[in-house]
Amino acid sequence: MQISNQNTYTTRPSGEVFESNPEIDQYRQEALGYAADSQPANPENTDRRRTEFGASTVAAAETAPVPSVNETWWEDPEVLIRFSQGTTYYRGQALLESQAA
Amino acid sequence: MSSKIFQKAYQLLVGDDVSTDWLKMPKKRALKSLTERELLSLESEIGAKLFGPVPEGRRREFFCFDERTWIWHEEWLDANKKIATSTVRYEVNETGVLKVQEGARYSYLEGEELRNFGIAIRMYYEQVARQVYHRDPTTGQSLVQ
Questions:
Q1: Beta strands per DSSP E along chain B
Q2: ipTM greater than 0.90, yes or no?
Q3: What's the pLDDT score for residue A81?
Q4: Using alpha carbons only, what angle is made at residue B109 by residues B105 and B114, rounded to the nearest 5 degrees?
Q5: Chain B window 51-110: which residues touch A at a Cβ cutoff of 8 Å?
Q6: Mean pLDDT, range A59-71, rounded to an integer
Q7: Nearest CA of chain A to the CA of B113: how many Å?
Q8: Which residue, among B66, B62, B76, B65, has the nearest Cα to B127 in the 3D structure?
């Protein structure tokens, strides 16, 4: 199974080029636009950002995920983890809320 | 370790309930009395649609299992009308995104597939934050007044 952005889904890694999914294309354009508008990569800022974001899971999840200044942010595992951290944090908060009810 | 994650993920996926249609979102305290599996089901309903419509006759799940793991699960009827399944685990580590398929097949995502995966989990986070947990995905603030 190969993840694709095709409107019709197939489980076989056929390798063909898929037609673009308008919704994913929108996000792709936003991501690329964000990277293009960002300041040139500054290692100092990157290190500072990583230190801040890595301080604690809760702090990192409560801070909005910020795509890397690199144009290929999806290649940065830390960025990817931030999205899952955010999701699991909200899930955990919801469970706590339901237990407190 | 790997098989335990698959087992737990499968239990979370299947359980006793197949349909989540009965799950309603109350206007107030929307997530009251929901279990982790129920929350995952709600999230997965969003995740399944990120890659386009689910073909008829198939059941698709895609969800964030934990901070470093994503699960893709699909069920369908094969040519013999028997239920066939496929479960893929995506594990994000310092090196990249490791794709773990049944049969101990391992590979790292790259190129177009990696980009699509990244975009998908970003969309997942944003849509789940808003629609399931009523949170602004940018600020984390509650959207419920």
A1: 59-66, 69-77, 83-92, 97-101, 105-108
A2: no
A3: 95
A4: 150
A5: 51-55, 58, 60, 64, 66-70, 72, 74, 76, 86, 88, 92-97, 101, 109
A6: 54
A7: 6
A8: B62
